[in-house]
Inverse folding.
């Protein structure tokens, strides 16, 4: 009987504790020893990851890193989510999507980097003002802004020249100029389509059609700010109408293309980041311009989507002291320089354009992207982030791509649902 | 005149035996070796089907999300809230409607084509083995690879539209809200056909030759033999084919995910499992995903009962 009462009391205490919410206390932030890290599976990042791990292990025999590529799944986020639930996530993942941070945080899967005495100062010192976009709603940093791929418009110089357009300085600054130019290119059969962003319905596809132009049109606004959807206003409508015109006139394709439409000459333009420079090298004679705006803002005022991936520390990590040291080592000026050299992607440092002058002197193609990297917009770091993006994508797909509803009405309806989601979180 | 009668075989009354059995005897049953042989599969069923199904029911009645071990989270009981959320979600309702369209096309088409082709392949025709293998190849080929071929076939510049010329649909098949789901249904029918032909081929071996000879003697032609002998003769296989086609259709995921770019256009080919993946895994709401899954299980069971009532009835 006594045992029953004791068990019941313990159960009541545990239930009461559970009712308080919050994460279980984790291991000591100073604990040191061996750790595991995951990195992306593209060849360039694997090469960088291997040299980084080798460099660390050579100096730290008692705190070695075991590294591997993120296991394959439908998406990295799905694999990471499963690893968090199973309790076997690594200490660090060098490819954490900012859109998934709120979900991983809710799962109790992340370590706030503010836990470390120099956490906030290191992170803000490295990334500058841009770091603010990566702060979670509780005011903590659960991710270190690592690298961005600022999205710009690549165009095929030969296709433009075929249409009689100056390939070195094509008129693509305003929405109207852009439309007039691409009409000429398609009419001259420079390519079947002007541009072919994936018209499919995955939640993240809007990051590569609507969102960069929305960021530019608004001068740097996120999709959701202060708990309210921002996309149904005048700027959002203009951008939606711009894309609607492209789809309605068949300048943008509504069907999925299984290859690379730009490299294959199917589309005269692509909307991608600097990672694509090495991909298109030798295949397309390309030029690059910022995304257009209705008023034709100057290039040095154009914002765009960052397409960033970050580093997060996962709560299954035991040796968090080592993990934090590795995180600082891997994002040091030296390692960021190696990352830039090996991948062409922009480290999310406040001084990236001036920090590596030799590299940008030797690789002027990348300099444009380094300048653009100073003006990037991230996905909003809010709860239900992916549900919000899917809600937006459904409305965009229905109205803008397939023309089954007025884009303005569709955006308003989606905004009401997004406001509701944002207020519930 | 000798009158004979069949010997009466009397069963030993079980009551008397079981009354004397110990509890251990009752647990292991009358056939302990048989029980031991069946046990691994029972364990497999419990671990892989029964437990996850029970857990899914539990999840669907709670505000549930996956959390890290040791994380203290609240998962309160929410009664039917998740089901209300699911049923009031237009995308979910549309997905269930889409899958009904799919089943209405896929089910009859699968039964008719696989039975006719199995019947043809069962006859002594030339190149029989070649045809049997040809029909089976799509079934064993990964969907990801085959989808690529279908994208080339059915896009606006594809082979199908080139053949159709001016009567080709606009918008094209996979981006046409009326044709996307039927195209997916035809794709799945084609891909699964080899397996169902195999089932019918096995069933056809059990239809007695005597019945065909008797029908021929009664003056039945080829079609009459097929209709009056073959079709009733393979009815158990037809029940199985209809049931398996229904289950396959209800689990539709890869095709809308890959062929129509995530259930497009505008949700016209979204399936309940695709929505379940989006809501449950991508968006981190396994409670909502579980509710969709349970509704799907109930739907499949109802359909299976109806099919058994009409297709599997005894004459």
């Amino acid at each position: 009987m006594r045992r029953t009462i004791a068990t019941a009391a313990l159960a009541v205490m545990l239930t009461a504790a559970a009712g308080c919410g919050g994460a279980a206390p984790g291991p000591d932030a100073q604990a040191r020893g061996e750790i595991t890290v995951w990195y992306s599976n593209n060849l360039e990042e694997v090469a960088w990851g291997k040299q980084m791990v080798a460099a660390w292990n050579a100096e730290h025999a008692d705190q070695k890193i075991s590294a591997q590529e993120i296991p394959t799944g439908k998406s990295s986020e799905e694999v990471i989510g499963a690893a968090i639930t199973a309790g076997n996530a690594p200490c660090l993942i060098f490819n954490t999507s900012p859109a998934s941070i709120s979900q991983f945080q809710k799962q109790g899967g992340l370590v706030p980097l503010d836990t470390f005495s120099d956490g906030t100062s290191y992170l803000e010192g490295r990334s500058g003002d841009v770091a603010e976009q990566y702060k979670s709603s509780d005011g903590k940093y659960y991710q270190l802004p690592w690298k961005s791929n600022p999205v710009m418009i690549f165009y095929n110089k030969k296709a433009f020249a075929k249409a009689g357009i100056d390939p070195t300085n094509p008129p693509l600054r305003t929405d109207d100029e852009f439309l007039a130019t691409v009409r000429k290119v398609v009419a001259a059969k420079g390519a079947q389509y002007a541009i072919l962003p994936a018209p499919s319905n995955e939640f993240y596809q809007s990051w590569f059609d609507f969102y960069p132009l929305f960021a530019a049109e608004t001068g740097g606004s996120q999709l959701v700010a202060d708990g309210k959807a921002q996309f149904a206003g005048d700027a959002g409508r203009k951008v939606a109408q711009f894309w609607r015109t492209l789809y309605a006139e068949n300048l943008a394709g509504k069907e999925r293309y299984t290859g690379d439409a730009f490299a294959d000459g199917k589309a005269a333009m692509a909307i991608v980041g600097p990672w694509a420079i090495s991909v298109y090298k030798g295949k397309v004679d390309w030029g690059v311009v910022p995304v257009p705006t209705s008023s034709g803002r100057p290039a040095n005022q154009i914002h765009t989507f960052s397409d960033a991936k970050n580093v997060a520390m996962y709560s299954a990590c035991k040796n968090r002291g080592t993990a934090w040291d590795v995180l600082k080592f891997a994002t040091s000026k030296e390692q960021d320089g190696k990352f830039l050299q090996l991948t062409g992607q922009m480290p999310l440092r406040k001084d990236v354009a001036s920090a590596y002058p030799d590299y940008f002197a030797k690789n002027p193609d990348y300099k444009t992207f380094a300048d653009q990297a100073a003006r990037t917009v991230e996905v909003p770091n809010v709860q239900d982030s992916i549900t919000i993006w899917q809600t937006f994508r459904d409305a965009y797909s229905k109205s803008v791509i397939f023309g089954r509803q007025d884009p303005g009405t569709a955006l308003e309806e989606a905004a009401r649902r997004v406001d509701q989601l944002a207020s519930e979180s | 005149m000798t009158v004979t009668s069949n010997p009466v075989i009397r069963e030993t009354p079980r009551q008397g035996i079981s009354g004397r059995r110990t509890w251990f005897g009752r647990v292991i049953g009358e056939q302990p070796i048989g029980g031991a042989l069946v046990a691994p599969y029972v364990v497999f069923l419990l671990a892989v089907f029964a437990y996850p199904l029970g857990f899914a029911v539990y999840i669907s009645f709670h505000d549930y999300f996956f959390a890290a071990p040791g994380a203290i989270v609240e998962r309160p009981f929410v009664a039917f809230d998740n089901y209300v959320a699911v049923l009031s979600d237009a995308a979910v309702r549309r997905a269930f409607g889409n899958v009904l369209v799919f089943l209405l096309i896929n089910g009859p088409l699968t039964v008719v084509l696989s039975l006719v082709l199995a019947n043809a392949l069962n006859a002594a025709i030339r190149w029989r083995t070649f045809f049997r293998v040809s029909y089976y190849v799509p079934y064993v080929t990964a969907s990801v690879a085959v989808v690529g071929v279908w994208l080339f076939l059915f896009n606006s510049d594809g082979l199908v539209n080139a053949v159709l010329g001016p009567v080709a649909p606009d918008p094209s098949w996979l981006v046409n809200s009326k044709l996307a789901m039927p195209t997916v249904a035809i794709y799945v029918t084609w891909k699964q056909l080899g397996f169902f032909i195999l089932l019918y081929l096995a069933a056809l071996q059990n239809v007695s030759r005597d019945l065909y000879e008797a029908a021929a003697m009664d003056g039945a032609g080829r079609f009459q033999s097929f209709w009056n002998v073959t079709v009733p003769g393979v009815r158990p296989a037809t029940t199985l084919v209809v049931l398996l086609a229904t289950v396959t259709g209800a689990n539709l995921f890869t095709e809308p995910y890959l062929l129509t770019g995530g259930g497009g256009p505008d949700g016209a080919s979204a399936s309940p499992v695709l929505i379940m993946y989006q809501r449950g895994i991508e968006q981190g709401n396994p409670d909502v995903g579980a509710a969709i899954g349970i509704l799907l299980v109930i739907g499949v069971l109802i359909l299976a009962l109806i099919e058994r009532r009409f297709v599997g009835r005894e004459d």
